[in-house]
Amino acid sequence: MSSIVSNMNAERNNRWLLIGALVLAVVAGVLIFFALANLNSDDGASSSASTGDSPVLIAKENIAAGAQLNADMFRSATFATSDVIANPI
Q1: Which tens digit of pLDDT belongs to each residue from 1-32?
Q2: Are residues 79 and 52 in contact, defined by beta-carbon separation less than 8 angstroms?
Q3: Neighbours of 84 (CB within 10 A)
Q4: DSSP letter at 49?
Q5: Burial letters for 31-67: b for 16+ Cβ neighbours within 10 Å, e otherwise?
Q6: What pTM value is reported for the model?
Q7: pLDDT tens sequence across 49-70
Q8: 5-to-1, 8, 10, 13 alpha-carbon distances in Å
Q9: DSSP for residue 40
Q10: How far apart are CA 4 and CA 11, in angstroms?
């Protein structure tokens, strides 16, 4: 028995430890992905079940900080209600 333990290679043990950690990380990532994908919105409706369109205001291009805002910098677009952020800044 002592000959088995004395012949164990430290690099081989480290490799199996890293493989095990990688497998656990992948499993945890998949579980987190599915948990986040199945979250419900605040109103209790599923985020994937959306109907209707919402008009939103979008900047035509990047706006520099401190720039004076005017109507020519924006355009209107229509998005699915589920894609629109509730209570934006």
Answers
A1: 555 555 567 677 788 899 999 999 999 999 99
A2: no
A3: 15
A4: -
A5: eeeeeeeeeeeeeeeeeeebeeeeeeeeeeeeeeeee
A6: 0.36
A7: 446 788 888 999 999 999 999 9
A8: 7, 5, 11, 12
A9: B
A10: 15
